[in-house]
Amino acid sequence: MTEAVLMEAVTKHFRSGSRRLSALRHVDLSIAEGELVAVYGRSGSGKTTLLSLAGGLDRPDEGHVHAAGEEVSSLSDAALERFRRESVGWVFQASGLHPLLTAAENVALALRIQGRAATEAQEAAEVALAEVGLAARARHRAHELSGGEQQRVALARALVKRPQLLLADEPTGQLDTATARQVLVLIRAAADSGVTVLVASHDEALTEIADRVLQIQDGTLVD
């Protein structure tokens, strides 16, 4: 079994005024390539910090983080930027789309940032939107889309660059039950295609599609 994510004794602290708070405490985590792992926990339990460290948005205070073939915790700032740009796709609770860009333009932006040509990026974006069932909405601006459509565009944007790792932080938190299930089906399909997926959520429907479910309490993973 090839590990796509490996965390070893990872600890992360934050400052709140004069207080030093522990977000993660000696976390060990191993995720195989193509595995979909769901992490549950209350607000403030460390879920978002866990994803941020796996995706290179932050660095641990102690321990090591390996992801997508890189020791993320030891990369230079420039290498870390490249890792985030090329190897990781993100989906957040809010879609984060540019409201005045079309669905296709929002998706293509992920490739343009990588330096891909405009025509190539646009063509790839349209394919990605078709894969999430939104080919007919490609020319609609983001503000014209429903919440569920916006979140599917965000998923297409994350996947269009064919990342090795997909990180989703409360991806269904603002969706109704039926729409949330549509998004979860697409996330499951991404894992089935070989993308490693780590999802932080409160949505119990994740247990139906995840390969493994973990609990996090006060910065510590609990099996």
On the 0 to 100 scale, the average pLDDT is 93
**From the coordinates shown, what is the CATH architecture of the domain at 3-95 and 162-222?**
3-Layer(aba) Sandwich
Fraction of residues in helix? 25-40%
**Order of strands across the biggest sheet?**
6-7-8-3-9-10
Protein architecture, described:
By secondary structure, the chain is of the alpha/beta class. The chain has helices at residues 47-54, 77-87, 103-113, 118-131, 147-159, 177-192, and strands at residues 3-16, 19-32, 36-40, 62-67, 70-71, 88-91, 165-169, 196-200, 212-217, 220-222. The protein has a domain at 3-95 and 162-222: P-loop containing nucleotide triphosphate hydrolases (Rossmann fold, 3-Layer(aba) Sandwich). Helices cover 33% and strands 29% of the residues. A hairpin with a 2-residue loop joins strand 9 and strand 10. The relative contact order is 0.20. The mean pLDDT is 93.
In short:
This protein is of the alpha/beta class and 223 residues long.
Name its key features.
223 residues; alpha/beta; Rossmann fold; 6 helices; 10 strands; 33% helix
Write the layout of secondary structure elements.
Elements: E1 3-16, E2 19-32, E3 36-40, H1 47-54, E4 62-67, E5 70-71, H2 77-87, E6 88-91, H3 103-113, H4 118-131, H5 147-159, E7 165-169, H6 177-192, E8 196-200, E9 212-217, E10 220-222
Parallel strand pairs: 3-8, 3-9, 6-7, 7-8
Antiparallel strand pairs: 1-2, 1-4, 4-5, 9-10
